[in-house]
Design brief:
- 56% of the residues lie in helices and 15% in strands.
- It is α+β, with helices and mostly antiparallel strands and 362 residues long.
- It is built from 15 helices and 10 strands.
- The strands form 4 sheets. It has a 3-stranded antiparallel sheet with strand order 3-5-4. A 3-stranded antiparallel sheet has the order 6-8-7. The protein has a two-stranded antiparallel sheet with strand order 1-2.
Protein backbone atom coordinates (compact mmCIF):
# COMPACT_ATOMS: atom_id res chain seq x y z
CA UNK A 1 0.00 0.00 0.00
CA UNK A 2 1.41 3.43 -0.94
CA UNK A 3 1.11 6.76 0.85
CA UNK A 4 -1.80 8.13 -1.20
CA UNK A 5 -3.84 4.98 -0.55
CA UNK A 6 -3.20 5.26 3.20
CA UNK A 7 -4.30 8.93 3.18
CA UNK A 8 -7.51 7.99 1.36
CA UNK A 9 -8.28 5.19 3.83
CA UNK A 10 -7.87 7.60 6.75
CA UNK A 11 -10.91 9.51 5.35
CA UNK A 12 -9.48 12.92 6.12
CA UNK A 13 -8.28 12.08 9.64
CA UNK A 14 -4.61 12.18 8.61
CA UNK A 15 -2.70 14.48 6.31
CA UNK A 16 0.05 13.34 3.97
CA UNK A 17 2.65 14.80 6.33
CA UNK A 18 1.22 12.86 9.29
CA UNK A 19 1.16 9.62 7.28
CA UNK A 20 4.78 10.08 6.23
CA UNK A 21 5.92 10.76 9.79
CA UNK A 22 4.01 7.70 11.04
CA UNK A 23 5.55 5.53 8.31
CA UNK A 24 8.99 6.87 9.18
CA UNK A 25 8.50 5.87 12.83
CA UNK A 26 7.29 2.39 11.88
CA UNK A 27 10.26 1.93 9.55
CA UNK A 28 12.60 3.00 12.32
CA UNK A 29 11.10 0.29 14.57
CA UNK A 30 11.41 -2.26 11.71
CA UNK A 31 7.65 -2.80 11.71
CA UNK A 32 7.44 -2.02 7.97
CA UNK A 33 9.13 -3.23 4.82
CA UNK A 34 8.97 -1.45 1.47
CA UNK A 35 9.41 -2.18 -2.23
CA UNK A 36 10.02 0.36 -4.97
CA UNK A 37 7.98 -0.19 -8.14
CA UNK A 38 9.15 0.54 -11.67
CA UNK A 39 6.67 3.44 -11.77
CA UNK A 40 8.57 5.14 -8.96
CA UNK A 41 5.92 4.48 -6.28
CA UNK A 42 7.00 2.93 -3.00
CA UNK A 43 4.70 0.36 -1.42
CA UNK A 44 4.81 -0.40 2.30
CA UNK A 45 3.96 -3.69 3.99
CA UNK A 46 3.41 -4.27 7.71
CA UNK A 47 5.46 -7.04 9.36
CA UNK A 48 2.59 -8.43 11.45
CA UNK A 49 4.69 -11.17 13.06
CA UNK A 50 7.25 -8.68 14.37
CA UNK A 51 4.53 -6.40 15.73
CA UNK A 52 2.87 -9.30 17.59
CA UNK A 53 6.12 -10.68 19.01
CA UNK A 54 7.61 -7.35 20.09
CA UNK A 55 4.44 -5.80 21.49
CA UNK A 56 2.74 -8.99 22.63
CA UNK A 57 5.89 -10.42 24.23
CA UNK A 58 7.01 -7.16 25.83
CA UNK A 59 5.40 -7.82 29.22
CA UNK A 60 6.58 -11.44 29.35
CA UNK A 61 10.14 -10.46 28.51
CA UNK A 62 10.28 -7.69 31.12
CA UNK A 63 8.94 -10.00 33.83
CA UNK A 64 11.54 -12.67 33.05
CA UNK A 65 14.33 -10.06 32.84
CA UNK A 66 13.39 -8.65 36.24
CA UNK A 67 14.22 -12.01 37.84
CA UNK A 68 17.74 -11.82 36.35
CA UNK A 69 18.58 -8.19 37.12
CA UNK A 70 16.36 -5.20 38.07
CA UNK A 71 18.15 -3.02 35.48
CA UNK A 72 17.53 -5.32 32.51
CA UNK A 73 13.84 -4.36 31.99
CA UNK A 74 14.80 -0.66 31.76
CA UNK A 75 17.41 -1.38 29.08
CA UNK A 76 14.98 -3.55 27.15
CA UNK A 77 12.26 -0.89 27.38
CA UNK A 78 14.70 1.77 26.13
CA UNK A 79 15.54 -0.24 23.01
CA UNK A 80 11.85 -1.05 22.41
CA UNK A 81 10.80 2.61 22.67
CA UNK A 82 13.66 3.97 20.57
CA UNK A 83 13.37 1.31 17.89
CA UNK A 84 17.10 1.37 17.21
CA UNK A 85 19.92 2.56 19.46
CA UNK A 86 23.63 3.11 18.68
CA UNK A 87 25.79 0.10 19.49
CA UNK A 88 27.20 0.44 23.00
CA UNK A 89 28.62 -1.73 25.78
CA UNK A 90 25.64 -0.55 27.83
CA UNK A 91 23.51 -3.15 26.05
CA UNK A 92 25.98 -6.06 26.27
CA UNK A 93 23.73 -7.84 28.76
CA UNK A 94 20.85 -7.86 26.25
CA UNK A 95 23.22 -9.03 23.52
CA UNK A 96 24.38 -11.99 25.62
CA UNK A 97 20.74 -12.99 26.13
CA UNK A 98 20.12 -12.73 22.38
CA UNK A 99 17.42 -10.07 22.77
CA UNK A 100 19.07 -7.51 20.46
CA UNK A 101 20.76 -7.83 17.09
CA UNK A 102 23.20 -5.64 15.16
CA UNK A 103 21.93 -3.84 12.05
CA UNK A 104 23.60 -1.39 9.70
CA UNK A 105 21.53 1.68 8.95
CA UNK A 106 22.00 5.12 7.41
CA UNK A 107 21.97 8.20 9.56
CA UNK A 108 18.84 10.30 9.02
CA UNK A 109 19.25 14.04 8.70
CA UNK A 110 16.64 16.19 10.48
CA UNK A 111 16.04 18.38 7.47
CA UNK A 112 14.75 15.43 5.45
CA UNK A 113 11.70 15.07 7.69
CA UNK A 114 10.00 17.93 5.83
CA UNK A 115 10.95 16.53 2.45
CA UNK A 116 8.33 15.54 -0.12
CA UNK A 117 10.26 12.45 -1.22
CA UNK A 118 9.02 8.98 -0.21
CA UNK A 119 9.68 7.98 3.38
CA UNK A 120 11.77 4.99 2.29
CA UNK A 121 14.26 7.39 0.62
CA UNK A 122 14.80 9.70 3.59
CA UNK A 123 17.95 7.92 4.76
CA UNK A 124 21.05 9.98 4.04
CA UNK A 125 24.53 10.20 5.46
CA UNK A 126 27.04 7.68 6.76
CA UNK A 127 26.32 4.11 7.69
CA UNK A 128 26.35 3.30 11.40
CA UNK A 129 25.83 0.13 13.43
CA UNK A 130 22.70 0.09 15.56
CA UNK A 131 21.02 -2.40 17.89
CA UNK A 132 17.37 -3.38 17.57
CA UNK A 133 15.17 -6.01 19.18
CA UNK A 134 15.72 -9.49 17.78
CA UNK A 135 12.52 -11.22 16.70
CA UNK A 136 13.88 -14.75 17.06
CA UNK A 137 15.78 -13.83 20.22
CA UNK A 138 12.66 -12.61 22.02
CA UNK A 139 10.72 -15.72 20.98
CA UNK A 140 13.49 -18.06 22.17
CA UNK A 141 13.94 -16.16 25.43
CA UNK A 142 10.22 -16.35 26.25
CA UNK A 143 10.07 -20.06 25.40
CA UNK A 144 13.18 -20.86 27.46
CA UNK A 145 11.73 -19.16 30.51
CA UNK A 146 8.29 -20.68 29.91
CA UNK A 147 9.86 -24.16 29.83
CA UNK A 148 11.76 -23.50 33.04
CA UNK A 149 8.69 -22.12 34.83
CA UNK A 150 6.48 -25.00 33.67
CA UNK A 151 8.91 -27.75 34.75
CA UNK A 152 9.68 -25.93 38.00
CA UNK A 153 5.98 -25.88 38.79
CA UNK A 154 5.59 -29.59 37.97
CA UNK A 155 8.82 -30.88 39.62
CA UNK A 156 11.16 -28.39 41.32
CA UNK A 157 13.50 -25.47 40.63
CA UNK A 158 16.56 -27.60 39.78
CA UNK A 159 14.55 -29.64 37.28
CA UNK A 160 13.44 -26.37 35.67
CA UNK A 161 17.05 -25.24 35.21
CA UNK A 162 17.98 -28.60 33.70
CA UNK A 163 14.99 -28.40 31.33
CA UNK A 164 16.24 -24.99 30.20
CA UNK A 165 19.65 -26.53 29.43
CA UNK A 166 17.98 -29.28 27.38
CA UNK A 167 15.91 -26.70 25.49
CA UNK A 168 19.05 -24.90 24.32
CA UNK A 169 20.90 -28.03 23.20
CA UNK A 170 20.94 -31.81 23.81
CA UNK A 171 22.78 -32.71 27.04
CA UNK A 172 24.12 -35.82 28.74
CA UNK A 173 24.41 -36.75 32.40
CA UNK A 174 28.02 -35.55 32.41
CA UNK A 175 27.03 -32.15 30.96
CA UNK A 176 24.46 -31.57 33.72
CA UNK A 177 26.86 -32.78 36.42
CA UNK A 178 29.53 -30.36 35.22
CA UNK A 179 27.06 -27.48 35.03
CA UNK A 180 25.90 -28.01 38.62
CA UNK A 181 29.26 -29.31 39.89
CA UNK A 182 27.36 -32.17 41.59
CA UNK A 183 27.52 -30.49 45.00
CA UNK A 184 24.84 -27.89 44.20
CA UNK A 185 22.43 -30.48 42.79
CA UNK A 186 20.42 -32.12 45.59
CA UNK A 187 19.67 -35.84 45.56
CA UNK A 188 16.50 -36.61 43.64
CA UNK A 189 15.50 -40.26 43.28
CA UNK A 190 12.43 -41.94 41.86
CA UNK A 191 10.84 -45.24 42.81
CA UNK A 192 12.73 -48.21 41.38
CA UNK A 193 15.71 -46.13 40.18
CA UNK A 194 19.38 -46.90 40.80
CA UNK A 195 20.34 -45.10 44.01
CA UNK A 196 24.07 -45.22 43.17
CA UNK A 197 23.67 -43.17 39.99
CA UNK A 198 24.58 -39.44 40.08
CA UNK A 199 21.78 -36.95 40.88
CA UNK A 200 21.85 -35.58 37.31
CA UNK A 201 20.85 -39.02 36.01
CA UNK A 202 17.76 -39.15 38.24
CA UNK A 203 16.69 -35.66 37.20
CA UNK A 204 17.04 -36.41 33.49
CA UNK A 205 15.26 -39.75 33.77
CA UNK A 206 12.43 -38.11 35.70
CA UNK A 207 12.00 -35.47 32.98
CA UNK A 208 12.06 -38.17 30.29
CA UNK A 209 9.30 -40.26 31.89
CA UNK A 210 7.18 -37.31 33.07
CA UNK A 211 7.11 -35.14 29.94
CA UNK A 212 6.40 -36.49 26.43
CA UNK A 213 8.49 -33.76 24.78
CA UNK A 214 11.77 -34.87 26.41
CA UNK A 215 13.50 -37.47 24.22
CA UNK A 216 16.33 -39.89 25.04
CA UNK A 217 18.71 -41.37 22.50
CA UNK A 218 22.23 -42.76 22.13
CA UNK A 219 24.97 -40.62 20.61
CA UNK A 220 28.75 -40.66 20.06
CA UNK A 221 30.89 -38.10 21.89
CA UNK A 222 34.24 -36.66 20.77
CA UNK A 223 36.06 -39.75 22.03
CA UNK A 224 33.81 -42.00 19.93
CA UNK A 225 32.16 -43.37 23.06
CA UNK A 226 28.43 -44.04 23.32
CA UNK A 227 26.57 -41.69 25.68
CA UNK A 228 22.88 -41.16 26.45
CA UNK A 229 21.72 -37.74 25.28
CA UNK A 230 18.49 -36.01 26.31
CA UNK A 231 16.87 -33.48 23.99
CA UNK A 232 13.67 -31.48 23.47
CA UNK A 233 11.18 -32.21 20.73
CA UNK A 234 10.02 -28.62 20.27
CA UNK A 235 7.05 -29.54 18.09
CA UNK A 236 5.79 -31.99 20.73
CA UNK A 237 6.37 -29.33 23.38
CA UNK A 238 4.17 -26.80 21.56
CA UNK A 239 1.46 -29.41 21.04
CA UNK A 240 1.64 -30.39 24.71
CA UNK A 241 1.37 -26.75 25.79
CA UNK A 242 -1.63 -26.18 23.53
CA UNK A 243 -3.34 -29.26 24.95
CA UNK A 244 -2.71 -28.05 28.49
CA UNK A 245 -4.04 -24.59 27.62
CA UNK A 246 -7.12 -26.20 26.03
CA UNK A 247 -7.79 -28.31 29.12
CA UNK A 248 -7.36 -25.32 31.46
CA UNK A 249 -9.68 -23.26 29.25
CA UNK A 250 -12.38 -25.95 29.35
CA UNK A 251 -11.95 -26.45 33.08
CA UNK A 252 -12.60 -22.76 33.80
CA UNK A 253 -15.68 -22.60 31.59
CA UNK A 254 -17.38 -25.97 32.12
CA UNK A 255 -15.86 -27.63 35.18
CA UNK A 256 -14.05 -30.86 35.99
CA UNK A 257 -16.38 -33.30 34.16
CA UNK A 258 -15.94 -31.54 30.82
CA UNK A 259 -12.21 -31.34 31.48
CA UNK A 260 -12.08 -35.15 31.92
CA UNK A 261 -13.96 -35.64 28.65
CA UNK A 262 -11.63 -33.29 26.80
CA UNK A 263 -8.49 -35.00 28.14
CA UNK A 264 -9.97 -38.42 27.23
CA UNK A 265 -10.64 -37.34 23.62
CA UNK A 266 -7.15 -35.87 23.32
CA UNK A 267 -5.67 -39.20 24.40
CA UNK A 268 -7.98 -41.71 22.68
CA UNK A 269 -8.98 -39.81 19.55
CA UNK A 270 -12.51 -39.88 18.01
CA UNK A 271 -14.98 -41.78 20.21
CA UNK A 272 -18.73 -42.35 20.53
CA UNK A 273 -20.55 -40.86 23.50
CA UNK A 274 -21.44 -44.36 24.78
CA UNK A 275 -17.78 -45.36 24.88
CA UNK A 276 -16.86 -42.12 26.67
CA UNK A 277 -19.58 -42.72 29.28
CA UNK A 278 -18.42 -46.30 29.92
CA UNK A 279 -14.75 -45.47 30.27
CA UNK A 280 -15.24 -42.37 32.44
CA UNK A 281 -17.97 -43.95 34.60
CA UNK A 282 -20.51 -41.30 33.69
CA UNK A 283 -24.09 -41.54 32.45
CA UNK A 284 -24.69 -41.27 28.69
CA UNK A 285 -27.06 -38.35 29.24
CA UNK A 286 -24.48 -36.40 31.25
CA UNK A 287 -21.79 -37.04 28.63
CA UNK A 288 -24.03 -35.87 25.78
CA UNK A 289 -24.95 -32.69 27.66
CA UNK A 290 -21.29 -31.88 28.27
CA UNK A 291 -20.31 -32.66 24.67
CA UNK A 292 -23.01 -30.47 23.15
CA UNK A 293 -22.07 -27.62 25.52
CA UNK A 294 -18.46 -27.92 24.37
CA UNK A 295 -19.58 -28.17 20.74
CA UNK A 296 -21.53 -24.91 21.05
CA UNK A 297 -18.19 -23.06 21.49
CA UNK A 298 -16.31 -25.14 18.94
CA UNK A 299 -14.19 -26.90 21.55
CA UNK A 300 -15.07 -30.38 20.25
CA UNK A 301 -15.88 -31.64 16.76
CA UNK A 302 -18.61 -34.10 15.77
CA UNK A 303 -18.36 -36.36 12.72
CA UNK A 304 -21.38 -38.18 11.30
CA UNK A 305 -20.83 -41.61 9.72
CA UNK A 306 -24.14 -42.89 8.23
CA UNK A 307 -24.58 -46.65 7.93
CA UNK A 308 -27.42 -46.30 5.40
CA UNK A 309 -28.10 -44.01 2.46
CA UNK A 310 -31.07 -42.30 4.13
CA UNK A 311 -28.84 -40.78 6.88
CA UNK A 312 -31.33 -41.79 9.58
CA UNK A 313 -30.12 -40.64 13.03
CA UNK A 314 -30.79 -44.06 14.54
CA UNK A 315 -28.50 -45.65 11.96
CA UNK A 316 -25.71 -43.05 12.11
CA UNK A 317 -22.52 -43.21 14.15
CA UNK A 318 -21.53 -39.93 15.83
CA UNK A 319 -17.83 -39.62 16.62
CA UNK A 320 -16.64 -36.87 18.96
CA UNK A 321 -13.08 -35.56 18.74
CA UNK A 322 -10.86 -32.60 19.59
CA UNK A 323 -9.43 -30.78 16.57
CA UNK A 324 -6.54 -28.52 17.52
CA UNK A 325 -7.02 -26.07 14.63
CA UNK A 326 -10.69 -25.43 15.44
CA UNK A 327 -10.00 -25.22 19.17
CA UNK A 328 -7.22 -22.68 18.66
CA UNK A 329 -9.50 -20.41 16.62
CA UNK A 330 -12.28 -20.67 19.21
CA UNK A 331 -9.93 -19.92 22.12
CA UNK A 332 -8.40 -16.99 20.24
CA UNK A 333 -11.84 -15.50 19.53
CA UNK A 334 -12.81 -15.82 23.20
CA UNK A 335 -9.57 -14.19 24.36
CA UNK A 336 -9.86 -11.33 21.85
CA UNK A 337 -13.47 -10.82 22.88
CA UNK A 338 -12.48 -10.62 26.53
CA UNK A 339 -9.70 -8.15 25.71
CA UNK A 340 -12.13 -5.99 23.74
CA UNK A 341 -14.64 -6.09 26.58
CA UNK A 342 -11.99 -5.03 29.10
CA UNK A 343 -10.85 -2.21 26.84
CA UNK A 344 -14.41 -0.92 26.35
CA UNK A 345 -15.14 -1.15 30.07
CA UNK A 346 -11.93 0.71 30.87
CA UNK A 347 -12.79 3.54 28.47
CA UNK A 348 -16.32 3.73 29.90
CA UNK A 349 -14.99 3.99 33.45
CA UNK A 350 -12.55 6.72 32.41
CA UNK A 351 -15.37 8.76 30.85
CA UNK A 352 -17.49 8.39 33.99
CA UNK A 353 -14.52 9.44 36.13
CA UNK A 354 -13.90 12.51 33.94
CA UNK A 355 -17.56 13.52 34.24
CA UNK A 356 -17.43 13.08 38.01
CA UNK A 357 -14.26 15.16 38.32
CA UNK A 358 -15.79 17.87 36.13
CA UNK A 359 -18.87 18.03 38.39
CA UNK A 360 -16.73 18.15 41.55
CA UNK A 361 -14.45 20.88 40.21
CA UNK A 362 -17.11 23.12 38.70
Amino acid sequence: MNISAIVQLSKGNMTTRQVKDALFTLLHHSFLSYTEKSSGLVEYRLDVKRVLVVIGGFGWTCNFLKSLDPEYPDLFTEVAVMGMVPESSKYDSLSRLGLVERVTSLMVQNQTLDSDEPVAKRHHGDQQVFLRLSLSGIGDFILENAVEEYVRHKVNAHAGKIARMIWKQPVSVQDVSRAFKNSSLPVFTTKGSNSTAPPAFHYLESLFFKFPFVKRQSSLNKDRQTVIVYSFDKLSFKQHFMQQAHIAFVSRLFGLASCRITRYLQTKGPQEDKTIAQDLLMTAKEVREKLYALHSLGLVHIQEIPRTMDHAPSRTIYLWSVRADIVNVSMRERVYGAMLGCDCRGKSECLMLQSLLFCLCY
